[in-house]
Design goal:
By secondary structure, this protein is mostly helical. It is built from 19 helices and no strands. The two termini are 45 Å apart.
Protein backbone atom coordinates (compact mmCIF):
# COMPACT_ATOMS: atom_id res chain seq x y z
CA UNK A 1 0.00 0.00 0.00
CA UNK A 2 1.37 3.43 -0.90
CA UNK A 3 2.23 5.83 1.87
CA UNK A 4 -0.26 8.57 2.56
CA UNK A 5 0.72 12.23 2.35
CA UNK A 6 0.98 12.44 6.12
CA UNK A 7 3.37 9.51 6.15
CA UNK A 8 5.68 10.90 3.49
CA UNK A 9 7.92 12.99 5.76
CA UNK A 10 8.49 9.98 8.02
CA UNK A 11 9.23 7.75 5.05
CA UNK A 12 11.56 10.41 3.68
CA UNK A 13 13.40 10.54 7.00
CA UNK A 14 13.84 6.76 6.97
CA UNK A 15 15.24 6.83 3.45
CA UNK A 16 17.52 9.69 4.47
CA UNK A 17 18.77 7.58 7.38
CA UNK A 18 19.33 4.61 5.06
CA UNK A 19 21.28 6.83 2.67
CA UNK A 20 23.47 8.31 5.42
CA UNK A 21 24.28 5.02 7.14
CA UNK A 22 24.75 3.06 3.91
CA UNK A 23 27.03 5.58 2.24
CA UNK A 24 29.15 6.31 5.32
CA UNK A 25 29.51 2.63 6.22
CA UNK A 26 30.58 1.62 2.74
CA UNK A 27 33.01 4.53 2.51
CA UNK A 28 34.75 3.43 5.70
CA UNK A 29 35.05 -0.22 4.65
CA UNK A 30 36.58 0.76 1.31
CA UNK A 31 38.95 3.18 3.04
CA UNK A 32 40.31 0.39 5.25
CA UNK A 33 41.06 -1.88 2.29
CA UNK A 34 42.56 0.75 0.01
CA UNK A 35 44.78 2.24 2.73
CA UNK A 36 46.73 -1.03 2.92
CA UNK A 37 47.67 -0.76 -0.76
CA UNK A 38 48.43 2.95 -1.23
CA UNK A 39 51.20 5.09 0.20
CA UNK A 40 50.49 8.39 1.98
CA UNK A 41 51.97 10.37 -0.92
CA UNK A 42 49.48 8.79 -3.35
CA UNK A 43 46.61 9.54 -1.00
CA UNK A 44 47.81 13.10 -0.64
CA UNK A 45 48.10 13.78 -4.36
CA UNK A 46 44.64 12.33 -4.93
CA UNK A 47 43.17 14.40 -2.08
CA UNK A 48 44.56 17.61 -3.62
CA UNK A 49 43.11 16.86 -7.06
CA UNK A 50 39.81 15.70 -5.59
CA UNK A 51 39.61 18.84 -3.45
CA UNK A 52 39.94 21.05 -6.52
CA UNK A 53 37.33 19.04 -8.44
CA UNK A 54 34.90 19.14 -5.51
CA UNK A 55 35.21 22.92 -5.29
CA UNK A 56 34.54 23.20 -9.04
CA UNK A 57 31.60 20.81 -8.68
CA UNK A 58 29.76 23.12 -6.27
CA UNK A 59 28.38 25.58 -8.88
CA UNK A 60 27.57 22.74 -11.28
CA UNK A 61 25.56 20.88 -8.65
CA UNK A 62 24.13 23.70 -6.56
CA UNK A 63 23.42 26.61 -8.92
CA UNK A 64 19.79 25.62 -9.47
CA UNK A 65 19.24 22.90 -6.88
CA UNK A 66 17.72 25.10 -4.16
CA UNK A 67 15.87 27.22 -6.70
CA UNK A 68 14.03 24.14 -7.94
CA UNK A 69 13.20 23.18 -4.35
CA UNK A 70 11.98 26.62 -3.30
CA UNK A 71 10.01 27.67 -6.39
CA UNK A 72 6.24 27.66 -5.93
CA UNK A 73 5.76 26.28 -9.45
CA UNK A 74 8.35 24.72 -11.70
CA UNK A 75 7.75 24.48 -15.43
CA UNK A 76 9.28 21.88 -17.72
CA UNK A 77 11.16 24.52 -19.71
CA UNK A 78 12.78 25.77 -16.47
CA UNK A 79 14.02 22.27 -15.64
CA UNK A 80 15.42 21.89 -19.16
CA UNK A 81 17.09 25.30 -19.07
CA UNK A 82 18.66 24.65 -15.66
CA UNK A 83 20.05 21.33 -16.86
CA UNK A 84 21.39 22.90 -20.07
CA UNK A 85 23.16 25.81 -18.38
CA UNK A 86 24.69 23.51 -15.75
CA UNK A 87 25.90 21.20 -18.55
CA UNK A 88 27.54 24.09 -20.39
CA UNK A 89 29.22 25.16 -17.15
CA UNK A 90 30.48 21.63 -16.51
CA UNK A 91 32.08 21.36 -19.96
CA UNK A 92 33.70 24.77 -19.51
CA UNK A 93 35.21 23.77 -16.15
CA UNK A 94 36.48 20.47 -17.54
CA UNK A 95 38.15 22.34 -20.40
CA UNK A 96 39.71 24.72 -17.87
CA UNK A 97 41.14 21.76 -15.94
CA UNK A 98 42.64 20.18 -19.03
CA UNK A 99 44.23 23.44 -20.13
CA UNK A 100 45.35 24.79 -16.75
CA UNK A 101 46.27 21.68 -14.74
CA UNK A 102 49.99 21.58 -15.74
CA UNK A 103 50.48 25.21 -14.71
CA UNK A 104 48.54 24.71 -11.46
CA UNK A 105 50.63 21.63 -10.66
CA UNK A 106 53.84 23.64 -11.01
CA UNK A 107 52.47 26.48 -8.88
CA UNK A 108 51.50 24.09 -6.08
CA UNK A 109 54.72 22.10 -6.33
CA UNK A 110 52.86 18.92 -7.34
CA UNK A 111 53.52 18.10 -11.02
CA UNK A 112 51.36 14.99 -10.71
CA UNK A 113 48.32 17.25 -10.72
CA UNK A 114 49.08 17.94 -14.38
CA UNK A 115 47.64 14.57 -15.40
CA UNK A 116 45.50 13.64 -12.39
CA UNK A 117 43.32 16.76 -12.26
CA UNK A 118 42.14 16.55 -15.90
CA UNK A 119 41.19 12.90 -15.49
CA UNK A 120 39.28 13.50 -12.25
CA UNK A 121 37.54 16.53 -13.74
CA UNK A 122 35.62 14.18 -16.05
CA UNK A 123 33.44 13.39 -13.04
CA UNK A 124 31.88 16.84 -13.52
CA UNK A 125 30.20 15.85 -16.78
CA UNK A 126 27.44 13.56 -15.39
CA UNK A 127 26.72 15.99 -12.54
CA UNK A 128 24.26 18.37 -14.28
CA UNK A 129 21.81 15.59 -15.13
CA UNK A 130 22.14 13.96 -11.71
CA UNK A 131 21.82 17.27 -9.82
CA UNK A 132 18.74 18.32 -11.78
CA UNK A 133 17.01 14.99 -11.24
CA UNK A 134 17.98 14.97 -7.55
CA UNK A 135 16.44 18.42 -7.03
CA UNK A 136 13.19 17.31 -8.67
CA UNK A 137 13.12 14.14 -6.56
CA UNK A 138 13.70 16.07 -3.34
CA UNK A 139 10.97 18.52 -4.30
CA UNK A 140 8.60 15.56 -4.67
CA UNK A 141 9.88 13.93 -1.44
CA UNK A 142 11.01 10.91 -3.44
CA UNK A 143 13.89 10.09 -1.10
CA UNK A 144 13.83 6.40 -1.98
CA UNK A 145 15.45 6.98 -5.36
CA UNK A 146 18.01 9.34 -3.83
CA UNK A 147 19.00 6.79 -1.21
CA UNK A 148 19.22 4.04 -3.81
CA UNK A 149 21.33 6.35 -5.96
CA UNK A 150 23.84 6.99 -3.19
CA UNK A 151 24.12 3.41 -1.99
CA UNK A 152 24.12 1.78 -5.44
CA UNK A 153 26.70 4.16 -6.89
CA UNK A 154 28.92 3.90 -3.83
CA UNK A 155 28.63 0.11 -3.72
CA UNK A 156 29.27 -0.39 -7.43
CA UNK A 157 32.19 2.04 -7.52
CA UNK A 158 33.64 0.63 -4.31
CA UNK A 159 33.56 -2.96 -5.54
CA UNK A 160 35.36 -1.97 -8.73
CA UNK A 161 37.91 0.03 -6.72
CA UNK A 162 38.54 -2.92 -4.41
CA UNK A 163 39.11 -5.30 -7.30
CA UNK A 164 41.46 -2.80 -8.93
CA UNK A 165 43.50 -2.08 -5.81
CA UNK A 166 43.84 -5.79 -5.03
CA UNK A 167 45.04 -6.26 -8.62
CA UNK A 168 47.75 -3.67 -8.12
CA UNK A 169 46.12 -0.73 -9.90
CA UNK A 170 47.21 1.64 -7.15
CA UNK A 171 46.10 5.24 -7.58
CA UNK A 172 43.89 4.36 -10.55
CA UNK A 173 41.58 2.48 -8.19
CA UNK A 174 40.70 5.75 -6.45
CA UNK A 175 40.31 7.50 -9.80
CA UNK A 176 37.96 4.80 -11.07
CA UNK A 177 35.96 4.93 -7.85
CA UNK A 178 35.40 8.67 -8.15
CA UNK A 179 34.44 8.56 -11.84
CA UNK A 180 32.14 5.57 -11.41
CA UNK A 181 30.33 7.12 -8.46
CA UNK A 182 29.43 10.11 -10.61
CA UNK A 183 28.35 8.02 -13.59
CA UNK A 184 26.45 5.32 -11.67
CA UNK A 185 24.69 7.84 -9.42
CA UNK A 186 23.36 9.77 -12.38
CA UNK A 187 22.46 6.56 -14.24
CA UNK A 188 20.36 5.29 -11.31
CA UNK A 189 18.44 8.55 -11.03
CA UNK A 190 17.89 8.69 -14.78
CA UNK A 191 16.57 5.15 -14.78
CA UNK A 192 14.16 5.74 -11.89
CA UNK A 193 12.96 9.17 -13.03
CA UNK A 194 9.60 9.28 -14.86
CA UNK A 195 11.03 11.92 -17.22
CA UNK A 196 14.44 13.41 -17.87
CA UNK A 197 15.48 16.94 -18.80
CA UNK A 198 16.45 17.80 -22.36
CA UNK A 199 18.88 20.25 -23.88
CA UNK A 200 17.47 23.73 -24.34
CA UNK A 201 19.40 26.60 -25.93
CA UNK A 202 17.04 29.29 -24.58
CA UNK A 203 17.99 29.91 -20.94
CA UNK A 204 15.67 32.86 -20.32
CA UNK A 205 13.14 30.85 -18.19
CA UNK A 206 15.73 30.53 -15.40
CA UNK A 207 16.91 34.13 -15.41
CA UNK A 208 14.95 34.89 -12.18
CA UNK A 209 16.75 31.98 -10.50
CA UNK A 210 20.30 33.20 -11.13
CA UNK A 211 20.63 35.55 -8.14
CA UNK A 212 19.10 33.03 -5.76
CA UNK A 213 21.24 30.26 -7.29
CA UNK A 214 24.43 32.30 -6.88
CA UNK A 215 23.61 32.85 -3.20
CA UNK A 216 22.90 29.13 -2.69
CA UNK A 217 26.16 28.26 -4.41
CA UNK A 218 28.04 30.60 -2.11
CA UNK A 219 26.44 29.00 0.94
CA UNK A 220 27.32 25.52 -0.31
CA UNK A 221 30.89 26.61 -0.98
CA UNK A 222 31.39 27.93 2.54
CA UNK A 223 29.98 24.70 3.97
CA UNK A 224 32.51 22.38 2.32
CA UNK A 225 35.49 24.53 1.35
CA UNK A 226 37.37 24.65 4.65
CA UNK A 227 38.79 21.12 4.69
CA UNK A 228 39.43 21.14 0.93
CA UNK A 229 41.32 24.43 1.01
CA UNK A 230 43.28 23.21 4.02
CA UNK A 231 44.34 19.93 2.37
CA UNK A 232 45.39 21.70 -0.82
CA UNK A 233 47.45 24.16 1.23
CA UNK A 234 49.05 21.32 3.21
CA UNK A 235 49.99 19.48 0.01
CA UNK A 236 51.44 22.61 -1.54
CA UNK A 237 53.44 23.60 1.53
CA UNK A 238 54.36 20.29 3.18
CA UNK A 239 54.20 17.75 0.36
CA UNK A 240 51.74 15.12 -0.79
CA UNK A 241 52.81 12.57 1.87
CA UNK A 242 51.83 14.92 4.70
CA UNK A 243 48.62 15.76 2.87
CA UNK A 244 47.95 12.02 2.66
CA UNK A 245 48.27 11.65 6.43
CA UNK A 246 45.87 14.53 6.99
CA UNK A 247 43.52 13.14 4.35
CA UNK A 248 43.32 9.73 6.03
CA UNK A 249 42.65 11.38 9.39
CA UNK A 250 39.91 13.51 7.85
CA UNK A 251 38.36 10.49 6.15
CA UNK A 252 38.30 8.43 9.35
CA UNK A 253 36.77 11.14 11.52
CA UNK A 254 34.47 12.68 8.89
CA UNK A 255 33.09 9.29 7.87
CA UNK A 256 32.20 8.42 11.44
CA UNK A 257 30.94 11.94 12.09
CA UNK A 258 28.69 11.76 9.05
CA UNK A 259 27.42 8.35 10.14
CA UNK A 260 26.44 9.77 13.53
CA UNK A 261 25.30 13.27 12.63
CA UNK A 262 23.47 12.44 9.39
CA UNK A 263 20.32 10.95 10.95
CA UNK A 264 20.22 13.73 13.55
CA UNK A 265 20.65 16.43 10.93
CA UNK A 266 17.69 15.16 8.90
CA UNK A 267 15.35 15.94 11.80
CA UNK A 268 16.86 18.97 13.54
CA UNK A 269 15.72 21.74 11.19
CA UNK A 270 12.14 20.42 11.21
CA UNK A 271 12.10 20.30 15.03
CA UNK A 272 13.41 23.85 15.37
CA UNK A 273 10.96 25.20 12.77
CA UNK A 274 8.05 23.51 14.56
CA UNK A 275 9.15 24.90 17.94
CA UNK A 276 9.43 28.39 16.50
CA UNK A 277 5.90 28.32 15.09
CA UNK A 278 4.29 26.63 18.10
CA UNK A 279 6.01 28.38 21.02
CA UNK A 280 7.82 31.33 19.46
CA UNK A 281 11.11 30.19 21.04
CA UNK A 282 13.65 27.53 20.16
CA UNK A 283 15.98 27.92 23.15
CA UNK A 284 14.46 25.02 25.08
CA UNK A 285 14.50 22.66 22.10
CA UNK A 286 18.09 23.70 21.33
CA UNK A 287 19.24 22.87 24.86
CA UNK A 288 17.46 19.51 24.86
CA UNK A 289 18.76 18.54 21.42
CA UNK A 290 22.32 19.58 22.28
CA UNK A 291 22.17 17.70 25.58
CA UNK A 292 21.11 14.41 24.01
CA UNK A 293 23.41 14.80 20.98
CA UNK A 294 26.46 15.44 23.16
CA UNK A 295 25.54 12.59 25.51
CA UNK A 296 25.49 10.20 22.54
CA UNK A 297 28.52 11.45 20.60
CA UNK A 298 31.04 12.73 23.15
CA UNK A 299 32.09 9.30 24.48
CA UNK A 300 32.53 7.91 20.96
CA UNK A 301 34.85 10.63 19.70
CA UNK A 302 36.64 11.13 23.01
CA UNK A 303 37.28 7.39 23.03
CA UNK A 304 38.75 7.53 19.53
CA UNK A 305 40.90 10.49 20.55
CA UNK A 306 42.32 8.47 23.46
CA UNK A 307 42.88 5.26 21.48
CA UNK A 308 43.82 6.66 18.06
CA UNK A 309 47.21 4.83 17.89
CA UNK A 310 45.50 1.48 18.45
CA UNK A 311 42.64 2.27 16.04
CA UNK A 312 44.97 3.37 13.24
CA UNK A 313 47.39 0.47 13.64
CA UNK A 314 44.65 -2.17 13.85
CA UNK A 315 42.60 -0.93 10.89
CA UNK A 316 45.13 0.72 8.59
CA UNK A 317 48.51 -0.73 9.42
CA UNK A 318 51.83 0.51 10.77
CA UNK A 319 52.63 2.62 7.69
CA UNK A 320 49.91 5.07 8.75
CA UNK A 321 51.11 5.39 12.37
CA UNK A 322 51.99 9.06 11.82
CA UNK A 323 48.31 9.76 11.15
CA UNK A 324 47.32 8.67 14.68
CA UNK A 325 48.02 12.05 16.36
CA UNK A 326 45.97 13.74 13.63
CA UNK A 327 43.08 11.32 14.17
CA UNK A 328 43.25 12.03 17.89
CA UNK A 329 43.28 15.77 17.27
CA UNK A 330 40.36 15.75 14.82
CA UNK A 331 38.35 13.47 17.09
CA UNK A 332 38.85 15.81 20.02
CA UNK A 333 37.81 18.85 17.97
CA UNK A 334 34.68 16.94 16.92
CA UNK A 335 33.38 17.51 20.44
CA UNK A 336 33.16 21.22 19.59
CA UNK A 337 31.43 20.34 16.31
CA UNK A 338 28.67 18.39 18.08
CA UNK A 339 28.30 20.99 20.83
CA UNK A 340 27.65 23.64 18.13
CA UNK A 341 26.07 21.44 15.46
CA UNK A 342 22.52 22.74 15.79
CA UNK A 343 23.45 26.38 15.23
CA UNK A 344 23.11 25.93 11.46
CA UNK A 345 19.68 24.32 11.89
CA UNK A 346 18.57 27.25 14.04
CA UNK A 347 19.58 29.81 11.42
CA UNK A 348 17.83 27.82 8.67
CA UNK A 349 14.68 27.43 10.79
CA UNK A 350 14.65 31.20 11.31
CA UNK A 351 15.01 31.83 7.58
CA UNK A 352 18.55 33.20 7.95
CA UNK A 353 20.87 30.60 6.35
CA UNK A 354 23.27 33.31 5.20
CA UNK A 355 24.34 33.78 8.84
CA UNK A 356 26.03 30.39 8.84
CA UNK A 357 27.85 31.41 5.67
CA UNK A 358 29.31 34.39 7.53
CA UNK A 359 30.61 32.10 10.28
CA UNK A 360 32.01 29.55 7.81
CA UNK A 361 33.60 32.27 5.67
CA UNK A 362 35.41 33.69 8.69
CA UNK A 363 36.79 30.23 9.48
CA UNK A 364 37.93 29.69 5.87
CA UNK A 365 39.63 33.09 5.82
CA UNK A 366 41.46 32.28 9.06
CA UNK A 367 42.59 28.90 7.67
CA UNK A 368 43.88 30.49 4.47
CA UNK A 369 45.70 33.25 6.34
CA UNK A 370 47.16 30.85 8.89
CA UNK A 371 48.46 28.43 6.27
CA UNK A 372 49.98 31.27 4.25
CA UNK A 373 51.67 32.88 7.25
CA UNK A 374 53.10 29.88 9.13
CA UNK A 375 51.09 26.65 8.60
CA UNK A 376 53.32 25.56 5.71
CA UNK A 377 56.35 25.21 7.97
CA UNK A 378 55.40 21.95 9.73
CA UNK A 379 52.55 19.50 10.25
CA UNK A 380 52.27 20.65 13.87
CA UNK A 381 51.75 24.27 12.85
CA UNK A 382 49.28 23.20 10.17
CA UNK A 383 47.34 21.33 12.88
CA UNK A 384 47.39 24.47 15.00
CA UNK A 385 45.86 26.41 12.13
CA UNK A 386 43.07 23.85 11.71
CA UNK A 387 42.26 23.88 15.43
CA UNK A 388 42.69 27.61 15.88
CA UNK A 389 40.44 28.76 13.03
CA UNK A 390 37.11 27.48 14.45
CA UNK A 391 38.14 28.56 17.95
CA UNK A 392 38.82 32.10 16.75
CA UNK A 393 35.52 32.10 14.82
CA UNK A 394 33.63 30.76 17.86
CA UNK A 395 32.88 34.18 19.41
CA UNK A 396 31.22 35.25 16.15
CA UNK A 397 29.14 32.06 16.17
CA UNK A 398 28.09 32.55 19.79
CA UNK A 399 27.21 36.22 19.28
CA UNK A 400 25.07 35.58 16.19
CA UNK A 401 23.27 32.64 17.81
CA UNK A 402 22.47 34.90 20.77
CA UNK A 403 21.36 37.92 18.76
CA UNK A 404 19.47 36.12 15.99
CA UNK A 405 18.48 32.84 17.61
CA UNK A 406 17.65 34.30 21.01
CA UNK A 407 19.73 31.65 22.81
CA UNK A 408 21.75 33.02 25.72
CA UNK A 409 25.50 32.57 25.83
CA UNK A 410 25.32 30.29 28.87
CA UNK A 411 22.33 28.39 27.50
CA UNK A 412 24.28 27.57 24.33
CA UNK A 413 26.67 25.42 26.38
CA UNK A 414 24.32 24.14 29.06
CA UNK A 415 23.42 20.97 27.17
CA UNK A 416 27.07 20.00 26.67
CA UNK A 417 28.20 20.54 30.27
CA UNK A 418 27.22 17.20 31.84
CA UNK A 419 28.46 14.99 28.95
CA UNK A 420 31.71 16.98 28.95
CA UNK A 421 32.32 16.26 32.63
CA UNK A 422 31.63 12.53 32.17
CA UNK A 423 33.89 12.41 29.10
CA UNK A 424 36.69 14.24 30.96
CA UNK A 425 36.65 11.54 33.66
CA UNK A 426 36.65 8.81 31.02
CA UNK A 427 39.51 10.37 29.06
CA UNK A 428 41.61 10.89 32.18
CA UNK A 429 41.36 7.23 33.22
CA UNK A 430 42.04 5.94 29.70
CA UNK A 431 45.07 8.21 29.27
CA UNK A 432 46.57 7.07 32.57
CA UNK A 433 45.85 3.43 31.74
CA UNK A 434 47.55 3.72 28.34
CA UNK A 435 50.68 4.98 30.08
CA UNK A 436 50.70 1.97 32.41
CA UNK A 437 49.86 -0.94 30.13
CA UNK A 438 51.93 0.25 27.16
CA UNK A 439 52.54 -2.73 24.91
CA UNK A 440 51.85 -5.32 27.60
CA UNK A 441 48.47 -6.23 26.10
CA UNK A 442 48.03 -7.37 22.53
CA UNK A 443 46.58 -4.72 20.24
CA UNK A 444 43.01 -6.12 19.89
CA UNK A 445 42.85 -6.86 23.63
CA UNK A 446 44.13 -3.40 24.46
CA UNK A 447 41.61 -1.66 22.21
CA UNK A 448 38.73 -3.84 23.40
CA UNK A 449 39.64 -3.30 27.03
CA UNK A 450 39.88 0.45 26.57
CA UNK A 451 36.49 0.55 24.86
CA UNK A 452 34.74 -1.48 27.55
CA UNK A 453 36.36 0.41 30.42
CA UNK A 454 35.69 3.78 28.80
CA UNK A 455 32.02 2.96 28.28
CA UNK A 456 31.67 1.83 31.89
CA UNK A 457 33.36 4.92 33.33
CA UNK A 458 31.33 7.28 31.15
CA UNK A 459 28.04 5.59 32.05
CA UNK A 460 28.90 5.50 35.78
CA UNK A 461 29.92 9.16 35.96
CA UNK A 462 26.92 10.24 33.89
CA UNK A 463 24.61 8.28 36.22
CA UNK A 464 26.16 9.94 39.28
CA UNK A 465 25.97 13.46 37.86
CA UNK A 466 22.63 13.32 36.06
CA UNK A 467 20.52 10.17 36.55
CA UNK A 468 17.70 11.58 34.40
CA UNK A 469 19.99 12.04 31.41
CA UNK A 470 21.46 8.59 32.00
CA UNK A 471 17.99 7.00 31.85
CA UNK A 472 17.10 8.97 28.73
CA UNK A 473 20.31 7.89 27.03
CA UNK A 474 19.82 4.27 28.06
CA UNK A 475 16.28 4.34 26.67
CA UNK A 476 17.50 5.81 23.38
CA UNK A 477 20.15 3.16 22.96
CA UNK A 478 18.43 0.05 24.30
CA UNK A 479 14.70 0.86 24.58
CA UNK A 480 13.84 -0.77 21.27
CA UNK A 481 15.78 -3.94 22.07
CA UNK A 482 14.20 -4.25 25.52
CA UNK A 483 10.70 -3.82 24.11
CA UNK A 484 11.36 -6.48 21.47
CA UNK A 485 12.61 -8.92 24.12
CA UNK A 486 9.48 -8.29 26.17
CA UNK A 487 7.26 -9.01 23.18
CA UNK A 488 9.10 -12.27 22.63
CA UNK A 489 8.59 -13.20 26.29
CA UNK A 490 12.34 -13.23 26.97
CA UNK A 491 12.22 -10.34 29.42
CA UNK A 492 9.73 -9.55 32.16
CA UNK A 493 7.59 -6.45 31.82
CA UNK A 494 7.74 -3.85 34.61
CA UNK A 495 5.75 -5.06 37.59
CA UNK A 496 5.65 -8.64 36.31
CA UNK A 497 7.21 -10.83 39.05
CA UNK A 498 6.91 -14.00 37.03
CA UNK A 499 9.46 -13.01 34.44
CA UNK A 500 10.07 -14.98 31.26
CA UNK A 501 9.06 -18.61 31.13
CA UNK A 502 11.71 -21.11 32.05
CA UNK A 503 12.21 -24.68 30.90
CA UNK A 504 13.64 -27.40 33.13
Amino acid sequence: MAATSSDRPSVAALWGLFESVGVSGLAFVVLVFISHRLAPAEFGLFSMALGIVMLLNIPVECLFHDAILQARKVQREQIDAAFSLATALAFALVALCWLGAPLLGRLLGQPGLGWLLPVLSLSLLPTPLGATLAAVQRRNLEFRSLALRSVASRMGASLVALVMVLSGAGLWSLIAQQLLMAVLGTAVLAYLAPERPRWRSDWSPIRPWLVFGAASTGLAFTAVAASRVFLIAVGAGLGSATAGLFDLAFRIVDTLRGLVSGPIWHLSTTLFSRARHETGSIAGVYATATRMCCALTFPVFAGIACTAPEVVELLFGARWAEAAPLVSLLSATSLLFFARMFGTSVFIALGRPVVQAVISTSAIALIGAGMWLFGRQSAGLASTVWIGAPLLALPVDMFLLWRIGGIGLVDQWRGAATPALAVAAMATVLTLLRMDVGAVWDLPERLGGFAALGAFIYAAVLWLIDPVLFRQLFHRLFGGLIERLRRLGLLAAPGDPAGPPTTL
